Structure formats: C-alpha cells, structure tokens
C-alpha cells in the first residue's frame, strides 16, 4: 500500500510524501508571512498613532474571535473572488490563483494576528532603560530595532513563536476542506481508496509527530543560541 516505486498495484506512499511536502511549504510560507504581519502589527499597536492602533486591534480581535476554518473558507473563496473582480474592474482578465499561494496567504493572515500579540508581549518585556538609552544615544527607529529591540525580545518571543510554528504545521490540514492536496487530503484519499483507514491515518499522525519532534530539536538549539550570555532558569533562582 505504501510502495513508492511499485506501479502495480500503485502504492500511496508517494502521495503521502507529496502531501507532506505541500504541508511544509504552506507552513513555512504562512509562518514567514505571519512574522512579517506580526512585526508590523506589534509595532503598530505599541508605537503607532490612534488609527493604526485601532486597525491593528480590530484585525487581531476579529481573527482570534472567528474560528480558523470559517476564516479559511471566507478568505480562500471570497478573497480570490474579490481579487478577480478587482482585476476585471481594472480591465484585466481573471487570474487562476494557485491553491498553494492562496493557502500560504490565508494561513499567513491568520498567523499574523497571533504573532502580533506574541511579539507585542516580547517587546514590552524589554527593560525600558535599554530603549531610553538607545534613544538618548541618537539611534534611528530602524537602527534601534535591529540592534536593540529584535535581539533583546527574541528570547522572550521564541516560546510563543515556536508554538505558532507548530500550530501552522497542523493548520495546513484545514486546507483539505477547500480541496488542496496537502497531507490530510492525500491521506483521506488513500484511506478511501484502500479502506485501510486506521493504517493511513496512523501514518499521517506519525508524519505530523515527526515534524513536531524535528521542529522541537531545532527550536531548542535556536533558544540556546538566543539566550547565550543570559542566566539559565536555575541560575536565576
């Protein structure tokens, strides 16, 4: 059933691996977009004007209040239709938006709301004396962000960001409802064709578990690197 090379009868292992590859593509892309949106949103909430703060607050509140599946359906179908209507209004022909691109953008939009709050909390954890010293030294906002804010907030943000990455890997399964061939949809098709439901869903669970364990190992190394020179939790006590 899992044969990768045997064409007779065809195995489903290749389909599961292809779905896994698509899931990782979506997770990486959406996590990256979420970080960009989250950084802008966090700075907007902390340092923006009243309008910027209100827009950021509405965005994070709505995304976190509406179930992710509803948001995915709304953005995936209504969003792509809105883009095509805009193109038609401007005199251009309709475009066929790739399911991969649409999935990355949709999940990235959702991730951005949660990343905003994670990064906002991490920035607020930075001692104000460091920020005031940078301003007194005459650093521009962009230079202060690169040299002070980002390095200082990273250790505080990593646990929350690591959790968001793991959520992103699992949220890719929600795209199965819109017919995108990620791991969950490939698994469902394989199980339906072979009637070996337990076998294939256990295989999919094992693949998701492998992603989590591998991610945890990488995240652990990144946390050690980010906290270099800082006292450990035991030392702090």
From TrEMBL:
A single cellular component GO annotation: ATP-binding cassette (ABC) transporter complex
Organism, scientific name: Phyllobacterium pellucidum
PANTHER family given in the database record: CATIONIC AMINO ACID TRANSPORTER, MEMBRANE COMPONENT
Keywords linked to the UniProt accession: Cell inner membrane, Cell membrane, Membrane, Transmembrane, Transmembrane helix, Transport
Protein name, as recorded: ABC transporter permease
UniProt membrane topology term: Multi-pass membrane protein
Domain ABC transmembrane type-1: 20-219
InterPro entries: AA_ABC_transptr_permease_3TM, ABC_transp_permease_HisMQ, MetI-like, MetI-like_sf
Primary localization class, coarse: membrane
CDD domains in UniProt: TM_PBP2
Taxonomic superkingdom: Bacteria
SUPFAM superfamilies hit by this protein: MetI-like (SSF161098)
NCBIfam families recorded: HEQRo_perm_3TM
Subcellular location: Cell inner membrane; Cell membrane
Residue ranges of the TM segments: 20-43, 55-77, 97-115, 198-219
One of the record's GO molecular function terms: transmembrane transporter activity
């Amino acid at each position: 059933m899992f044969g990768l090379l045997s064409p007779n009868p065809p195995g489903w292992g290749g389909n599961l691996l292809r779905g896994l590859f698509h899931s990782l593509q979506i997770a990486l892309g959406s996590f990256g977009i979420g970080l960009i949106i989250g950084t802008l949103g966090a700075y907007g909430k902390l340092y923006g004007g009243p309008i910027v703060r209100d827009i950021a607050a509405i965005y994070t509140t709505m995304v976190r209040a509406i179930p992710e599946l509803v948001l995915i359906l709304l953005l995936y179908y209504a969003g792509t239709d809105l883009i095509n209507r805009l193109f038609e209004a401007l005199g251009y022909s309709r475009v066929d938006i790739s399911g991969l691109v649409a999935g990355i953008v949709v999940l990235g939009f959702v991730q951005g709301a949660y990343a905003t709050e994670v990064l906002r909390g991490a920035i607020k954890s930075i001692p104000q004396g460091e920020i005031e010293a940078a301003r007194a030294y005459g650093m521009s906002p962009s230079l202060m962000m690169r040299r002070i804010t980002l390095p200082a907030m990273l250790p505080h943000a990593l646990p929350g960001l690591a959790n968001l990455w793991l959520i992103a890997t699992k949220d890719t399964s929600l795209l199965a409802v819109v017919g995108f061939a990620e791991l969950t949809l490939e698994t469902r098709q394989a199980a339906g064709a072979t009637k070996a439901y337990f076998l294939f869903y256990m295989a999919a669970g094992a693949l998701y578990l492998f992603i989590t364990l591998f991610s945890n190992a990488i995240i652990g190394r990144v946390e050690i690197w980010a906290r270099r020179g800082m006292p450990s939790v035991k030392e702090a006590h």
